[in-house]
Amino acid sequence: MARRDYYDVLGVKKNAGPDEIKRAFRTLALRYHPDRNQGDADAERSFREVAEAWSVVGDPEKRARYDRLGPLYTDSGRPPSSDQVNDMLRETFGNLFRRRRAEVGEDLTYTLSVSLEDAAKGIERTLVIQRQVRCVRCDGSGDHPENRIPCASCGGSGKSATRRLFRSECVACDGKGYKPTNRCDRCNAEKRVPLEETLRVKVPPGVATGSKLRLRQKGNDTLPVTGMAPGATGDLYVLVNVEEHALFRRRGPDLLCEVPVGFADLALGADLVVPTLEGTTTIRIPPGTPSGKSFRLPGRGLPGDSGKGDLHVKVDIETPTVLSADARAALQAFATATAGASHPKRTEFQDAVRGRR
Ligand SMILES: [Zn+2]
Ligand SMILES: [Zn+2]
For the CA atoms of 231, 233, 235, 236, what is the dihedral angle to 10 degrees? Predict the structure, then answer.
């Protein structure tokens, strides 16, 4: 794999001075440092790239050789190990990264409503969120870098001349090494600015209300604190809310659906059109089906831990409240014709009641 030009990696010109190169390395090393980008493989790759570039162009001898040989330059043929990188950082910036770290950035939450159908098959959705990110205009300092006046007490070093217990920062400037003059006009000295960000989130099939999806480092950046390495950016938690459905109730991966049916259909048997998540299907109920009976349609539920759930269709009798004259006559004829054997439970009940007299 072709190596990137080291000057390009550091974002400096070929003729940049040592101080400019050091500044560029410092900025990039801080941005991509693993402590600030936990678990981010891209950042780690960038960090190693930056460290490798610095190990060459930050060293006058190696830099001269690199300038002569260009892409043919080889140091040892291998990028520096993590230990070497940490040694380099320590040499260059003292114990910058070993200092107390600032708090981590705040986590954010976003409630995402999805339909039952979408929850069943999974869906990708676009979210627009607002999060607080470090101000790039002032790099989190809150003031204008170009207008800074070096601190008179410490001569700009930020260190106290007399080392005191627990702290060695200059008291006059709080360790900054300068006096801020005017506020940053981008963040108004808040050090962070709101950023509207559009994110894609994958909602996995079978999610339930209360499911949490974590989007790493899409929360707030830490509030910058002078003299402290920044803590990790917070995470974004997407809370899923599965909407109520007009036809289905959910029980884990299973779905329940109640179907109102006329008495005649239960008695005679019928083909019923019932809803499914995908549309409809037809089930045959046999003659003599009791009210309240459930029919199981395997695999027509939602994805669950142990495979797909089932759809349970429950038939419920609907008693007519209004009858036409024809319907009334037909029912009266039916009642006369079905005394006895057609209703064994009712006959048994009536016999028991009669025995009490
Ligand atoms: Zn000072
Ligand atoms: Zn700012």
Answer: 150
CA of 169 to the centre of ligand 1 (A): 8
Ligand nearest to C-alpha 141: 2
Q: Which residues of the chain have pLDDT under 50?
A: 1, 95-100, 164-166
DSSP β-bridge partners for residue 251: 254
Quick: pLDDT tens for 59-113. 888 888 888 877 677 665 556 666 666 666 666 665 444 444 557 899 999 999 9
Alpha carbons 300 and 250: distance in angstroms, whole number = 12
CA of 150 from ligand 1 middle (Å) equals 8
Domains of the chain: 6-98 (1.10.287.110), 101-128+193-243 (2.60.260.20), 249-354 (2.60.260.20)
pLDDT value of position 97: 47
Query: Of 243, 3, 267, which Cα lies nearest the Cα of 123?
Result: 243
Q: Rounded to whole angstroms, how far apart are CA atoms 278 and 247?
A: 13
Tell me how far apart the alpha carbons of residues 51 and 342 are, in angstroms, rounded to a whole number: 89
| Inter-residue contact 225 to 159 (CB < 8 Å) | no
Got the DSSP string for 165-186? SS--B-TTTTTSSEE--SB-TT
Q: Which residues surround ligand 2, an ion (CB under 5 A)?
A: 135, 137-138, 184, 186-187
| Ligand number with the minimum distance to the CA of 134 | 2
**Alpha carbon of 29 to ligand 1 centroid (Å):** 25
- Dump pLDDT digits (tens) for 217-248: 999 999 887 767 778 899 999 999 999 999 99
